[in-house]
């Protein structure tokens, strides 16, 4: 790991020095995105939209995490991986939330969740592969390493869905995006209280009576996030499977599939 003389400088200064001598490509991505986020922050403050301004500040904070992790745990993030992480944060928070790419661009959320599954599998793969390579007492098969990476990725995906559900449940957000559906099946509609679902199909309109008045949902029934959650987990699954297959091949032949190292965190000084 790169340390300054005396190892007595502040973490921020050490990080700056490290960037100067190593990550030229990812540094350029970092600087460009940081400038764009700062511009967005100023514009949102001028508009008086402090919720979005908070998201900008959160993005700036998240941008520092890759380098802080490198500095703290002495790991090296490949430039490609680090750049993808920065772009992922920017795409999710600035483009997705503030500019509503989730609503305007079809499959934007799906793309990000698929990428998340791929990247998380890479992190999980790195953790177990480092242990496998540096321990004389442990010798795990390539299939086992890939399986652990897959489980790690899926766990991250599930924890994120827990986070989305918490936001919707307790803070009245809509992180688990609602969808209009025209068909539902439920045992709640079974008048005999039997464990047999009653299917309601071709729903044209749903009427909701509240104390404040009546709300009409046109063209169907409102699904409150179940379809979105399951879709997110399924594409996370696909992303994880793609990386685990690549990681499996990489362990079998590290020279032939060396390009996989672009997505795998490494111990500093290791290849």
Describe the structure.
- This protein has helices at residues 11-21, 24-47, 50-73, 79-98, 101-104, 108-134, 142-171, 226-252, and strands spanning 75-76, 179-181, 184-186, 198-200, 205-210, 213-218, 221-223, 266-267.
- The model is unreliable at 1-7 (pLDDT under 50).
- The protein is flat.
- It is 62% helix and 10% strand.
- It contains eight helices and eight strands; from the N terminus they run αααβααααββββββαβ.
- Helix 7 runs antiparallel to helix 8 (226-252).
- By secondary structure, it is mainly α.
- The chain has three domains: 1-94, no CATH class; 106-175 and 226-271, no CATH class; 179-223, no CATH class.
- A two-stranded antiparallel ribbon has the order 1-8. Strands 2-7 form a two-stranded antiparallel sheet.
Anisotropy-based shape: flat
Mean pLDDT: 88
Q: Biggest sheet, in brief?
A: 2 strands, antiparallel
Strand order of the largest sheet: 1-8
Q: With helices defined by DSSP (H or I, 4 residues minimum), what is the helix count? A: 8
DSSP strand content: 5-15%
- The count of β-strands is 8
Q: How large, in whole angstroms, is the Cα Rg?
A: 23 Å
Distance between the termini: 13 Å
Order of helices and strands: HHHEHHHHEEEEEEHE
Provide the structure class: mainly alpha
- Domain count: the total is 3
Query: What proportion of the residues is helical, as a percent range?
Result: 55-70%
Quaternary structure annotation? single chain
Low-confidence stretches: 1-7
């Amino acid at each position: 790991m790169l340390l300054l003389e005396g190892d007595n400088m502040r973490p921020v200064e050490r990080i700056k020095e490290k960037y100067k001598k190593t990550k030229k490509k990812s540094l350029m991505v970092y600087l460009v995105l940081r400038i764009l986020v700062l511009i967005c922050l100023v514009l949102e403050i001028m508009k008086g939209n402090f919720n979005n301004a908070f998201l900008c500040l959160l993005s700036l904070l998240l941008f520092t995490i890759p380098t802080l992790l490198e500095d703290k745990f002495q790991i090296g993030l490949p430039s490609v991986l680090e750049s993808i992480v920065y772009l992922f944060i920017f795409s999710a928070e600035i483009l997705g939330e503030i500019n509503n790419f989730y609503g305007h661009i079809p499959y934007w959320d799906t793309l990000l969740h698929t990428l998340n599954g791929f990247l998380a599998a890479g992190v999980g793969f790195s953790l177990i592969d480092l242990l496998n390579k540096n321990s004389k007492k442990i010798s795990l098969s390539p299939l086992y390493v890939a399986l652990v990476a897959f489980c790690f990725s899926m766990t991250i995906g599930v924890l994120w869905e827990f986070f989305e559900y918490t936001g919707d449940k307790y803070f009245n957000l809509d992180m688990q995006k609602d969808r209009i559906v025209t068909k539902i099946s439920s045992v709640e509609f079974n008048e005999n209280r039997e464990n047999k679902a009653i299917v309601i199909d071709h729903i044209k309109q749903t009427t909701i009576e509240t104390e404040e008045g009546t709300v009409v949902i046109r063209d169907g029934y409102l699904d409150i996030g179940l379809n979105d959650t399951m879709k997110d987990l399924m594409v996370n699954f696909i992303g994880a499977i793609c990386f685990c297959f690549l990681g499996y091949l990489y362990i079998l032949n590290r020279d032939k599939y060396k390009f996989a190292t672009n997505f795998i965190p490494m111990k500093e000084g290791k290849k």
